[in-house]
Amino acid sequence: MSFGKLVTLAMLSAFSAGAGYSYVAEKHGLPLPGVAVSRETASTTKIETVSPSVQLIKTSPSTSHVQPADFTPYTLCSDAIRIHCVVDGDTLWHNGTKIRVADIDTPEISKPKCSSEAARGAKATRRFLELVNAGPVEFQAWPGRDEDKYGRKLRVLVRDGRSLGDILVSEGLARTWSGRRQPWC
Questions:
Q1: What is the pLDDT of residues 9-65, one digit of tens each?
Q2: What would you measure as the largest C-alpha separation in the chain, in angstroms?
Q3: Average pLDDT for residues 71-75, to the nearest whole number?
Q4: Of 39, 108, 145, 180, which is the active-site residue?
Q5: Which of 28, 103, 142, 185 could pair with 122 in a Cys bridge, judged by C-beta atoms 3.0 to 4.6 Å apart?
Q6: Would you say 42 and 64 are in contact if contact means Cβ atoms under 8 Å apart?
Q7: How does the average pLDDT of the chain come out, rounded?
Q8: Alpha-carbon distance 111 to 20, whole Å?
Q9: Beta partners for residue 175, in sequence order
Q10: Chain segment 38-54, per-residue pLDDT in tens
Q11: CB atoms inside a 10 Å sphere around CB 184
């Protein structure tokens, strides 16, 4: 296969993944890529990519919550380049590092086993995006294990002394991690 054909196939694959995601996002009410919504502040943050190294961040007016100057809001992951985005209810990319929220398990959105799992996974993903965009979090190491078998860093996300995972569990959007996945259907 020629290099040109390989590049064309790679580009088509990346486009298809994005188009497929847009369909799933619309069907399950997930925010579209580049848009992060925070329920606590009732504000919407729009991130526009001007070039690969420059992003414009526009936030609608909100007087109830002020983010630190160095806080970068998360978006929903949608393409092959993942730097600072939420994958699903228990996985995110933080400054180029893939992190698995170690203290919980949420329903899958990429390969759900049934429609109810897809719907619950979409709700968990939306809520997780809101939680991480409510302000800075502390990434605490999981005792005894730094990475999972997929190379993701295992971390507990904590704000104001409370695990974001515990919040998702209390809202019925996640389970406390038991050491293995359990079915959601």
A1: 444 444 444 444 444 555 555 555 544 444 443 344 444 444 444 333 333 333 334
A2: 57
A3: 92
A4: 108
A5: 28
A6: yes
A7: 76
A8: 13
A9: 105
A10: 444 334 444 444 444 43
A11: 17
Phi, psi of 128 (to 5 degrees): -60, -40
Q: Active-site residue 117, yes or no? A: no
Compute how many other C-beta atoms are within 10 angstroms of the C-beta atom of residue 98.
Answer: 17
| Integer Cα distance of 80 and 156 in angstroms | 25
For each of the domains in the chain, give its residue range(s) and CATH number, in order of start.
3-176 (2.40.50)
| Partners of 55 in beta bridges | 49
Active site residue 171: no
- Reduce the DSSP state of residue 157 to 3 states and report it: strand
Among candidate residues 127, 152, 155, 180, the one labeled active-site is 152
46 Cβ partners below 8 Å, 6+ apart? Answer: 34, 35, 57, 58, 59
Q: Does 82 participate in catalysis according to the annotation?
A: no
Residue carrying the six token digits 């228990």: 90
